[in-house]
Design goal:
six-stranded antiparallel β-sheet; single chain; Arc Repressor Mutant, subunit A; Chorismate lyase; 10 strands; 8 helices; about 30% helix; 2 domains; alpha+beta; two-stranded antiparallel ribbon
Length: about 240
């Protein structure tokens, strides 16, 4: 029963959004008002709103309400990268919006995440990734950790938002990428990151950790990227040999 109510509610609200009854930028009725209007339980209302949020039609903020963000479902981002060259192409189509550059010393939790010794020094470059030419929400948040010997790359990061930092390091410091190791983890979206990504705190997310390694087996860059689950699909093909 609740399943039917929540589906009907979701469809009616999405039709109201696409028709302009609820314009972009306006607030939807409160959960209590929707319960009264549709004779639905609070659980059913929340299911319906979560479905609309997963489609990118609304955003929900504590003490603000439920805001209409788009009239059509946002296109998700599908990543299919098999080579370093394809990874570089990602930078050309998904531009960097710089949020901060700072020198840091890795404490033990960060060192465990990066797979480096505690107390290691890094230059951290933090940014959002935006789909070039699109007004959709950010695709991801990325913290890039650069070997201090390459810290001068910070000078060119802001000037070249469509070039990967690893590519800039190759061009300026001669560390040619021999291989990239990637780990993918499922996490809950931290509150601070969620706010930057205009997403719901605690929602499922994917964390991608990439180690950029040169021919001498030295890791000169580590990137930690967080994608909300509703904006990212990772695809790969396996072939039988």
């Amino acid at each position: 029963m609740a399943q039917g109510i929540h589906t009907d509610l979701m469809l009616d609200l999405s039709q109201g959004i696409s028709s302009g009854r609820y314009p972009v930028g306006s607030l939807l009725p409160t959960e209590f008002e929707l319960c009264e209007r549709y004779g639905a339980s609070r659980y059913a209302v929340r299911q319906a709103l979560q479905a609309l949020q997963d489609l990118g039609l609304i955003s929900r903020r504590k003490n603000v309400g439920t805001r209409v963000e788009a009239t059509q479902p946002a296109a998700g981002f599908t990543q299919s990268i098999a080579t370093v060259d394809e990874l570089a192409q990602f930078g050309a189509t998904h531009v960097r919006q710089l949020h901060g550059v700072e020198e840091i010393v890795a404490d033990l939790p960060l060192a465990a995440l990066l797979g480096c010794p505690g107390g290691s020094r890094w230059l951290r470059i933090s940014s959002l990734r935006m789909d070039q030419g699109s007004r959709h929400k950010p695709i991801c948040w990325t913290d890039v950790y650069v070997d201090p010997a390459c810290a001068g790359v910070a000078e060119w990061v802001e000037q070249s938002p469509d070039v990967l930092i690893s590519t800039l390091i190759e061009q300026r410091f001669g560390h040619r990428i021999a291989r990239v190791r990637q780990d993918v983890r499922a996490i809950h979206l931290p509150e601070k990151t969620a706010e930057l990504l205009q997403a719901e705190p605690g929602m499922p997310a994917l964390q991608l950790i990439r180690h950029y390694i040169d021919a001498s087996d030295k890791t000169f860059e580590i990137s930690v990227t967080v994608h909300p689950s509703d904006r990212f699909t990772f695809t790969m093909e396996m072939e039988r040999k």
